[in-house]
Specification:
Protein name: SEC24 homolog D, COPII coat complex component
Biased composition (Polar residues): 71-81, 95-105
Shape: globular
Domain Gelsolin-like: 895-967
CATH topology of the domain at 304-437 and 678-774: Immunoglobulin-like
Structural class: alpha/beta
Biased composition (Pro residues): 202-221
Domain Sec23/Sec24 trunk: 436-675
Largest sheet: 8 strands, mixed
Oligomer: single chain
Length: 1026
């Protein structure tokens, strides 16, 4: 078959020699036991049998299937040829061969990395060629191969292994070894105090708490920790390095002798990926394609699989069997961000309308028409790619097939040729079978004493005048206003009125909306009356001394207003204190520091049951999303107050000890971002999968009424849902695995739509393929969310233990089954996961995971809830902040200075560094910083003259000042949340706050340094392997 002629059109559904296609066979075999962190028989580390050494055939999305014995493909050649596999010869180091694929669009060759630097107790060293894999597995010669590439080389020429990324890449190296980083690490028993008085980092065997799962482990060992529950083999006494729950002091050789440059670095991995794939176009026509990192700038061209901006996976190659999954313990999950913002140079989603018939769906599994449906019978029927059911094609949708078995109108129909698109939903998809009304926004302002005195109410009223102009309108939409303290005040702002009218509801137990006409109004029509109201509110309550507030009835009032107007919408609630007034949802202080580090610590994170639980359900049923802006000066039981926002797709913002001068701009930036986000209302999402695996668990700002429907009162461009998958049968290498995320929602102008995202993954019976296709940033997103959910029912100690244990287990399985034989003292890491330990150690040092009485309970609960709704790029930045040196940057360049590692060792006394993690931002100034630098940034002669509470840089007319301010404002624009700039001087007291973000160092409250953690994990791995 000729390869020319298909270059211009998106080439993902044409048959190519050597490309396996999709075929929807499904088996009715018995379900395998679930794997991973769930129960099951004890599983030893075993090498896969010889039959498993077949590499997956990679194929393009939507391709006709290969000729298997299928009654639907009589013409073998037409439906694509068999995948060809060329075994690679073993690598010979003396005679390097140059592969013809060096300039492939997929990733380059995977040399091993070896870190060896002799030292008495701990050997860590530089990167270099690692030991050779022997014998190499046969490699699918066309895996990940884009379509327009030279034909495969003759047999016997070594192939590149795709999907690996490595430091010191040498093109001359043969790539038949597995990509890996190896470090020589001997960890003898160091003299040192036993940790926490016991010879284990976490004293006592953890009882599996409620929701804890026992973990299968190698026979003859204590049971391994499961995902949150189960036992762990205890380490030897006196392990080097402090660890969560251990004293900070550390006997043994001082750390400074170690060379930190010899261990894998996140900044280096990010830089390498940007150098390799930055600025390139990613075409999504290849099944199981591993995308560039979230930190890399690239452009996506949709050609049959959803953009990684919408869906990222923990691995792009699923293990074929549950047993294999259980053996490696790599969680299988997708992080789905259905409303992700696309850059300006990428095409927005196409909207498809099939008129009154509505979207075409499979009769059996109800999957929507997509590139994985295969048309047969001359185009009269199609076979579903998810369940293999054969469906009739509706008459209006019929189209002839070409000589390749593809529809002639393939490229004219987004649903047949793209990974993501939208359908216009018919009335069957609407409540009560009638079209929805456009959503409305209600602003609810707490006018109690604190908020009036701080100037907050005046600030909000002033801002709303300009903000309402910027509402994301297609049609001008309805807005309403409520103020409250112990009672609620509703305002009639009908355009016919000269003055706004206020109606008071003091019976908060039986909430109702006192006026229907004039409460929710069109902003443009009633602008004059609304301005009048916003001017009057601060004066109306200026003399108030009411300090008690209510909270649940406020949300109830919003829900009732939306019910009466028969619409969905969003409540913006600006609230300052714990609701202590007599009313439903009244809260009392339960902040008990004595619970920290005990079995009962989990109570601090659990919301109080009752009123708020029911309120969440009412909100979701009505499509009422709640955004909560909190301005507390003391404990407010955030775990309970934020329960409704965190189940309705809402956001929680917290400004402790709010002062207009220092925090005003920070709060207003958050409010503006929030109001202008692209958003869908009254949403229901379902994730369908092809046979062999299914979605089993869901994490996010969501509500689940049943086991499959993810309900969200609203979903915006920053909210992500993490979905975990489990096997329920064997997967097939040839067919791969498909998932389809379907989101039904109401647009901002009241249209009901279905947003569809499709993704195809590879399957393999070789663990090496799975490890090569892993994505560390997605893995850590999954682990963060599952750990943060687990701390609701289990002691923190257990959860931390399980995290370490699963880290060791994943890496030990790689070492045993995929890496070349090498000395036990070497730590060998898969290339795609070589920086995973940095993120995992950082996760264990986050506020929710630290049992420290010095941390505020509300702050811990806030971070826990924020992370549950985060996408991959947000968790990546949170767990590894960006540290930028600003003192020696090129002011004429547009590029940001290269970030340095998050460690105190990288700071210099005469330097100026900017650190940001998406929620906090610091400008750190070294004590020996040159006075002229201080003069050009702050307009003061020296560091000593600097004001302590400065929260913005002065606007000065010099190149350095302009450059630094443009970097800061660029970062503020880019992140979903605003960040308050904090200026810290070296050796000043506030510097302690800054230091807790240097995640490679020892934690401020507890927690190991990256180096100690790596040694500890290495010992756990050796223990698992011996």
């Amino acid at each position: 078959m000729s390869q020319q002629g298909y270059v211009a059109a998106p080439p993902y559904s044409q048959a190519q020699p050597g490309m396996g296609g999709y075929q929807g066979g499904f088996g009715t075999g018995p379900a395998q036991p679930l794997y991973g962190h769930y129960g099951g028989p004890p599983q030893a580390f075993t090498t896969p049998p010889a039959g498993m050494l077949k590499s997956p055939a990679s194929s393009a999305a939507g391709m006709p299937p290969p000729p298997v014995s299928s009654q639907y493909s009589p013409n073998v050649q037409q439906n694509g040829a068999h995948p060809q596999r060329y075994p690679s010869p073993p690598a010979v180091y003396g005679q390097p061969t140059q592969s013809p694929y060096n300039s492939m669009a997929s990733r380059g060759p995977p040399p091993s990395q070896q870190l060896t630097n002799e030292m008495s107790a701990l050997n860590l060293g530089n990167y270099g060629p690692g030991p050779m894999q022997s014998p190499p597995p046969p490699i699918s010669s066309v895996a990940h191969q884009p379509f327009q590439t030279p034909p495969p080389p003759a047999m016997g020429q070594p192939q590149m292994l795709p999907g690996s990324q490595s430091l010191n890449m040498s093109p001359q190296m043969s790539s038949s070894q597995s990509p890996q980083a190896s470090m020589s690490m001997t960890s003898p028993q160091m003299p040192g105090p036993p940790m926490a008085g016991v010879g284990r980092p976490f004293p006592g065997p953890p009882p599996p708490g409620p929701g804890g799962f026992q973990q299968p482990g190698p026979p003859g060992y204590p049971q391994q920790a499961g995902q949150f529950g189960g036992h762990m083999a205890g380490p030897q006494p006196g392990m080097p390095g402090a660890f969560p729950g251990a004293p900070g002091s550390l006997a043994g050789p001082p750390q400074k002798k170690l060379d930190p440059d010899s261990i894998p670095s996140i900044t280096q991995v990010i830089e390498d990926d940007q150098a390799k794939q930055g600025g390139q176009v990613l075409t999504t026509n290849i099944r199981g394609q591993v995308p560039p990192l979230v930190t890399t700038d690239f452009t996506v061209q949709d050609q049959g699989n959803a953009s990684p901006r919408f869906i990222r996976c923990t691995t792009y190659c699923l293990p074929c069997t549950a047993d294999l999954g259980k053996q490696c313990q790599v969680p299988l999950a997708s992080i789905i961000k259905p409303f992700a913002s696309l850059p300006k140079n990428e095409t927005p989603l196409y909207v498809v309308s099939h008129g009154d018939t509505g979207p075409i769906r499979c009769n059996r599994c109800k999957a929507y028409m997509c590139p994985y449906m295969r048309f047969i019978d001359g185009g009269r029927r199609y076979q579903c790619g998810f369940c293999s059911c054969v469906n009739e094609v509706p008459v209006f949708y019929f189209q002839h097939l070409d000589h390749m078995g593809r529809r002639v109108d393939l490229y004219e129909r987004p649903e047949l040729s793209l990974g993501s698109y939208e359908f216009v939903a018919t009335l069957d998809y609407c409540k009560n079978n009638k079209p929805p009304n456009p959503p409305a926004y209600i602003f609810m302002i707490d006018v109690s004493y604190n908020n009036i005195k701080s100037g907050l109410v005046k600030l909000i009223c002033e801002e709303l005048k300009t903000l309402l102009e910027k509402l994301p309108r297609y049609t001008q939409e309805d807005v309403g206003f409520v103020t409250y303290n112990k009672v609620l005040h509703f305002y009639n702002v009908k355009s016919a009125l000269a003055q706004p009218q206020m109606m008071v509801v003091s019976d908060t137990a039986e909430m109702f909306v006192p006026l229907l006409d004039g409460f929710l109004v069109n902003y443009q029509d009633s602008r004059a009356v609304i301005y009048n109201l916003l001017d009057q509110i601060p004066d109306m309550f200026a003399d108030t001394n009411e300090s008690e507030t209510i909270f649940a009835p406020v949300i109830q009032a919003g829900v009732e207003a939306f019910k009466a107007a028969e619409c969905s919408g969003k409540l913006f609630i600006f609230h300052s204190s714990m609701p202590t007034a007599e009313a439903p949802g009244k809260l009392k202080n339960r902040d008990d520091k004595k619970l920290v580090n005990t079995e009962k610590e989990k109570i601090l994170f659990q919301p109080q049951k009752g009123v708020y639980e029911q309120l969440s359900k009412d909100c979701v049923a009505q499509g009422c999303c709640v955004d909560l802006f909190l301005f507390p000066s003391q404990y407010v039981d955030l775990a309970t107050m934020a329960d409704v926002p965190s189940h309705t797709g809402g956001s929680i913002y917290k400004y402790s000890n709010f002062q207009v001068e220092t925090d005003g701009e920070h709060f207003l930036r958050d409010l503006r971002k929030d109001v202008q986000k692209s958003i869908g209302f009254d949403a229901v999402m379902r994730v369908r999968t092809s046979t062999g695996f299914r979605a089993t668990d869901f994490f996010g700002a969501i509500h689940m009424n049943n086991t499959t429907d993810i309900e969200m009162a609203a979903v915006d461009c920053d909210k992500a849902v993490t979905v975990e998958f489990k096997h329920d049968d064997t997967l097939n290498e040839e067919n791969g695995a498909f998932l389809q995320c379907a989101l039904l929602y109401t647009t901002i102008n009241g249209q009901r739509r279905l947003r569809i995202h499709n993704l195809s993954l590879n399957c393999s019976s070789q663990l090496l393929e799975l490890y090569k296709s892993c994505e560390t940033d997605s893995l850590i997103n999954f682990f963060a969310k599952s750990a943060y959910r687990a701390i609701l029912n289990q002691p923190l100690k257990n959860v931390r233990e399980i995290l370490v244990n699963q880290t060791a287990h994943m890496l030990a399985c790689y070492r045993k089954n995929c890496a070349s034989p090498s000395a036990a003292s070497q730590l060998i890491l898969p290339d795609a996961m070589k920086v995973f330990p940095v993120y995992m150690n950082s996760l264990m040092k986050t506020a929710p995971m630290l049992g420290s009485t010095e941390l505020s309970t509300d702050d811990r609960a806030h971070q826990r809830l924020s992370v549950m709704a985060m996408g991959v790029e947000d968790t990546q930045l949170l767990l590894y902040p960006r540290l930028l040196p600003l003192h020696n940057m090129d002011v004429s360049s547009d590029i940001l200075p290269a970030p340095v590692r998050c460690s105190e060792e990288r700071l210099t006394d005469c330097g100026m560094f900017l650190l940001e993690n998406g929620h906090s931002m610091f400008l750190w100034l070294g004590q020996a910083i040159p006075p002229d630098l201080i003069q050009s940034i702050f307009n003061v002669p020296s560091l000593a003259h600097l004001q302590g509470d400065m929260c913005a840089l002065p606007e000065l007319d010099n190149v350095l000042s302009k450059k630094v301010r443009s970097i800061i404002s660029g970062l503020l624009d880019k992140r979903p949340n605003s960040m308050k700039l904090q200026i810290v001087r070296q050796k000043d007291k506030p510097e302690m706050l800054f230091r807790q973000f240097l995640v490679e160092d020892k934690g401020l409250y507890s927690g190991a340094s990256y180096m100690d953690f790596l040694c500890y994990v290495h010992r756990e791995i050796r223990q698992l392997l011996t």
